[in-house]
From TrEMBL, chain A:
NCBIfam families: PRK07937.1 (NF005924). This is Thiolase domain-containing protein. It comes from the Bacteria. InterPro entries: Thiolase-like. GO terms for molecular function: acyltransferase activity, transferring groups other than amino-acyl groups. Gene3D superfamilies: 3.40.47.10.
From TrEMBL, chain B:
It holds the Pfam family zf-ChsH2. Residues 64-127, 222-285 form the ChsH2 C-terminal OB-fold domain. Residues 186-217 form the ChsH2 rubredoxin-like zinc ribbon domain. SUPFAM superfamilies: Nucleic acid-binding proteins. The lineage of its organism: Bacteria, Bacillati, Actinomycetota, Actinomycetes, Kitasatosporales. It comes from Streptomyces sp. R41. InterPro entries: ChsH2_C (IPR002878), ChsH2_Znr (IPR022002), NA-bd_OB-fold (IPR012340), Thioester_dehydratase-like (IPR052513). This is Zn-ribbon domain-containing OB-fold protein.
Length: 351, 312
């Protein structure tokens, strides 16, 4: 079934992403971003039809931590609101479906993560299979390293290629004032071999928000809306040892269902926290050298957990807003070794 | 800006998980040094076994023994082991396809260094000395060239393991942020402060840095109380574990003078059945207390309902 109405990203805002932000609570970190994204459209919180957020209690170390952040959106008088314990890209997917129903014309989507209070490598082990895997505490870098070695063994990449992905990402990020790692960054020592510190994302705190609008409302709010032509998300088998870690069939299928292969894209914002994952995604998404990949620097330049995927959609949309792209692909991931993948295709009106 | 507070926060929980028939057999097998997989309807053997085929979603129950020896399908050298991991000396994470299996198991390989590890190398299980029916009954893997014999076990055991306890622990350094740090710092001087919304002028206490009605940041600090009014209350009759308060006691919402939001506290110094809406109260601090121990009647006349009805 084709979408019954056109829906677009009309505004995007994000924090500067930093290693620590302990002087502010989650809501204190979030409020400037919410105001920024609203200011870009002239909307007030009371104008928003639906609000959806993404975050996780495991970063905060507290149950129902998202309820505190709700203070930042003006939740009283009562608003229509939802939350996903997932990257904000999935909150955007929920908001998109809500807009498709025709019940509302605008949606605010936000996501945030403060990794600084805990050790994110250990925190992420708690999302693994609790019977066979989590009791071994394999951290997120270790699991990514297994995938990287599988790619090297398969001849899909090698350490110099991975280093070039790292260097290109941080060089691109030099133009992104929000990024945490910018310009020339040393490839460093092995963190878990074959991954060096340069192959891994920075650990940091940050937040992002986007506004979605449907049809004519989108044109009123944004000079050049980034129309969501398709969006889909898919998941791999749970067991790491069941999967072929050198490939990402779920990304390929999500891209196909989102219409990514119907016409070439000029830009791709990929949520690849590890250099080796960009290698997998480029193949799965059939991206060739003509496509500008991660002009923002991607997750290797700033990886606020739970917001980094939403930021990919926001960065792709912002490029369309300012006329730097006509058709962009945005990808978000969640879970170990590209477990879950979301692909969105965004387009600007013809010029 | 005054210094923002920080404190260690440890979140620990012993998750108790029940096992289905397949996981139960697999983990009981490990306790008995037998490795079991499960056959899919198209003839593959999954190790570790699951109850549903990840490809077809068929329910699968057909257990089959595989060898404790196998081949590394990928690996990663972990020179700095972290808390909870299988070995506390440098080791390789491995995905290992056991002989007879079609899928790989994640575990640790004890090897002298990264140069001693490669994809395709042959390894075998090193069993833990004490086994309870958990994935950690495999202490780790070790290099081994041969192929181990099967025990011929049927997969049926006396005294099956039906559950595991998986302890989880995460360590944080919690910081409450600017607004709540201000609140907690003031409490140490036995003062209560809120923050006023620049838009609706309401004073929130405890302050969280935002006005939930207007969705704007709050920053103007306002001292409230110390006296206040009971807006509503309940009588608690069940004694909480580790709580040294006799029941019944009264737990109340208290609107401190000057605050536009009621906070909660215990009411003391008055029989529980004489507490009422509108009762005027003041905080009672104990020596070294970080917050009021309880609130007691001030002896003033009760507040008029009209003065606090908006704060219920």
């Amino acid at each position: 079934m084709p979408p019954i109405r056109d829906i677009a990203v009309v505004a995007f805002a994000q924090t500067d992403h930093r290693r620590t932000s302990d002087e502010v609570s989650e809501v204190e970190m979030l409020i400037p971003v919410l105001h920024d994204v609203l200011d870009r459209t002239g909307l007030k919180t009371s104008d928003i039809g639906f609000t959806c957020s993404g975050s996780t209690d495991y970063l905060a170390g507290r149950a129902f931590s998202f309820t505190m952040a709700l203070d930042g959106v003006g939740a009283w008088p009562p608003i229509s609101e939802s939350h996903v314990e997932m990257d904000g890209a999935w909150a955007l997917y929920e908001a998109w479906t809500k807009l498709l129903t025709g019940e509302v014309d605008t949606a605010l989507v936000y996501a945030y993560g403060k990794s600084s209070p805990g050790s994110v490598r250990d925190v992420l082990t708690r999302q693994l299979d609790p019977y066979y895997v989590a009791p071994l505490w394999p951290d997120s870098v270790a699991l990514a390293a297994l995938q990287a070695q599988a790619l090297i063994d398969a001849g899909e990449t090698d350490e110099p290629v991975l280093a070039s992905v790292a260097a290109r990402s941080r060089a691109s990020a030099a133009a992104n004032s929000h990024a945490q790692l910018r310009g020339s960054v040393a490839q460093g020592d092995y963190l878990v071999r074959p991954l060096r510190t340069g192959d891994c994302p920075p650990v940091g705190d940050g937040a992002a928000a986007v506004i979605l609008a449907a049809g004519e409302r989108a044109r009123e709010l944004c000079e050049r809306p980034a129309w969501i032509r398709g969006i889909d998300h898919r998941i791999e088998a749970h067991g790491l040892g069941v999967r072929d870690l050198t490939d990402s069939p779920s990304t390929r299928l999500a891209a196909e269902r989102a219409g990514a292969f119907e016409r070439p894209v000029d830009t791709a914002e990929l949520h690849a926290p590890f250099t080796s994952q960009e290698v997998v995604l480029r193949t799965a998404l059939r991206l060739d050298e003509s496509v500008t990949v991660n002009p923002s620097g991607g997750a290797l330049a700033a990886n606020p957990v739970m917001a980094a995927g939403l930021i990919r959609i926001g960065e792709a949309a912002a490029r369309i807003h300012r006329g730097a792209s006509d058709r962009a692909l945005a990808h978000a991931t969640s879970g170990p070794c590209l477990q879950q993948n979301l692909v969105a295709v965004l387009e600007g009106d013809a010029r | 800006m005054p210094e923002v507070l920080k404190a260690p926060l440890i979140v620990e929980f012993p998750f108790t998980r029940s096992l289905g028939p397949v996981q139960s057999a697999f983990l009981t097998g490990l306790r008995e040094r037998v490795v079991l997989g499960v056959k899919t309807t198209d003839g593959r053997t999954l190790v570790p076994p699951v109850e549903y085929d990840p490809v077809t979603a068929d329910e699968i129950r057909d257990l089959v023994e595989v060898a404790p020896t196998g081949t590394v399908t990928t690996w990663a050298w972990n020179h700095e082991p972290r808390r909870g991991q299988p070995l506390d000396t440098p080791f390789a994470w491995v995905l290992v396809k056991l002989d007879g299996a079609d899928t790989a198991l994640l575990h640790a390989l004890d090897a002298p260094g990264p140069d001693a590890v490669r994809t395709g190398m042959r390894i075998r299980i090193r069993w833990a000395a004490e086994r309870s029916g958990a994935i950690t009954d495999i202490a780790c893997f070790e290099p081994y060239e041969g192929v181990a014999e099967l025990t011929g076990h049927s997969g049926r055991f006396e005294d099956m393991v039906t559950g595991i306890v998986a302890p989880a622990r995460l360590d944080y350094v919690y910081s409450p942020g600017r607004a709540q740090s201000g609140y907690i710092n003031a409490l140490s001087d036995q003062r209560t402060v809120g923050e006023r919304c620049p838009s609706c002028r309401k004073v929130y206490v405890p302050p969280r840095g935002a006005c939930p009605t207007c969705g704007v940041a709050t920053s103007e600090q306002v001292e409230v109380g110390p006296r206040g009014t009971v807006t509503t209350y309940c009588i608690v009759n069940i004694k909480a574990k580790n709580l040294d308060i006799e029941v019944p006691y009264v737990y109340a919402h208290i609107a401190l003078d000057g605050a536009d939001l009621a906070l909660h506290g215990r009411i003391g110094g008055i029989p529980y059945d004489e507490v009422r809406m509108g009762l005027r109260v003041e905080p009672v601090w104990t020596e070294g207390g970080r917050h009021p121990d309880h609130y007691r009647p001030t002896g003033e006349p009760d507040a008029d309902y009209e003065t606090y009805k908006e704060l219920l």
